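User: I've been trying to design a sequence by hand for this structure and keep getting stuck. Would you show me what you'd pick, starting by listing the structure so we're on the same page?

Assistant: Good idea, let's start from the same input. This is the structure you sent:
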């Protein structure tokens, strides 16, 4: 079957796939399986990073992109999920592409045959009365390119939570999948399924997380400077978010700008604006981005991440 027909079929079937019977929570009580984001670049584009982020952070955004890494990479990052509160969310990811590049019709493909990454996060909250809440996750992600234009990825995540509250310690597992297709030289299609399998265990109960699906399209190297992406996000058969993001190389790789829009359609419909700045020199890069949420409880969040690749 022609690849374009396959993609069209996926787009038609996806809402039905997401509508599978699920009576689940949106996330664990602590929240590390919630979409708290990862690197500052992906967050700066409003989370529209299913295709544009092709680094070790793909272990979080879209594991299929791990076949597109150019070498070994590592990223460290941090943010405060709720400004004004003693809460910290820190991340670490490391990844690499493996084996030789696929042979394409017009020369070597950007896809390598295999890719792998490890992701680690830690959420620390200080609750009222000085109680502590800690929750950590570790993820193992892998990808395989089946030909010179397509790759599939899988990420398995494990959670452990511990705190001072009674019957609130937890552990759990979750699984994501990803698909990346190169439609043309600079045009890409992506599909991710987040938390397709999940289980969170507490002393007094078990929980699940509602899975979500991202359909993404991107166009890169517009006027040799601009990359853009759009995502439609479905949860339980309903499109509840639209993500739009872009990245501009202002002066080579030394300075760039990212911006994005997270349009929430349900559960407190609103527009959340994102923007940030990128800089890289030789093998090192740094990014800082800001998330401007009109909800007073969240206000502005600042993300910072530092990466290194060889």
């Amino acid at each position: 079957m022609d690849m374009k027909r396959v993609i069209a079929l996926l787009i038609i079937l996806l809402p039905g796939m997401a509508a599978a019977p699920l009576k689940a929570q949106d996330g664990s009580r602590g929240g590390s399986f919630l979409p708290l984001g990862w690197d500052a670049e992906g967050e700066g584009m409003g989370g529209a990073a299913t295709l544009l982020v092709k680094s070790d952070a793909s272990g979080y955004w879209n594991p299929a992109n791990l076949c597109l890494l150019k070498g070994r990479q590592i990223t460290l990052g941090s943010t405060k999920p709720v400004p004004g509160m003693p809460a910290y969310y820190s991340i670490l990811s490391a990844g690499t592409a493996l084996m030789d590049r696929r042979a394409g019709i017009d020369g070597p493909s950007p896809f390598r045959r295999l890719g792998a990454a490890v992701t680690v996060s830690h959420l620390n909250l200080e609750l009222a009365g000085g109680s502590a809440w800690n929750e950590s996750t570790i993820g193992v992600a892998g990808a395989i390119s089946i030909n010179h234009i397509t790759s599939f990825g899988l990420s398995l995540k494990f959670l452990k939570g511990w705190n001072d509250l009674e019957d609130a310690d937890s552990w759990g597992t979750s699984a994501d999948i990803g698909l990346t297709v190169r439609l043309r030289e600079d045009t890409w299609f992506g599909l991710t399924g987040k938390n397709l399998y999940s289980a969170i265990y507490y002393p007094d109960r078990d929980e699940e997380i509602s899975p979500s699906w991202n359909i993404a399209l991107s166009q890169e190297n517009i006027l040799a400077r601009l990359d853009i992406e759009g995502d439609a996000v479905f949860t339980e058969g309903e499109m509840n978010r639209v993500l739009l993001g872009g990245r501009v190389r202002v002066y080579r790789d030394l300075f760039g700008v990212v911006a994005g829009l997270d349009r929430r359609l349900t559960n407190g419909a609103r527009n959340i604006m994102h923007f940030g700045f990128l800089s890289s020199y030789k093998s090192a890069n740094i990014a800082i981005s800001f998330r401007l949420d009109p909800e007073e409880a969240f206000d502005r969040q600042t993300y910072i991440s530092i990466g290194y690749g060889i």
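That's my pick for every position. To get oriented when you compare it with your attempt: Helices lie at 3-18, 40-44, 58-61. The chain has a mean pLDDT of 86.
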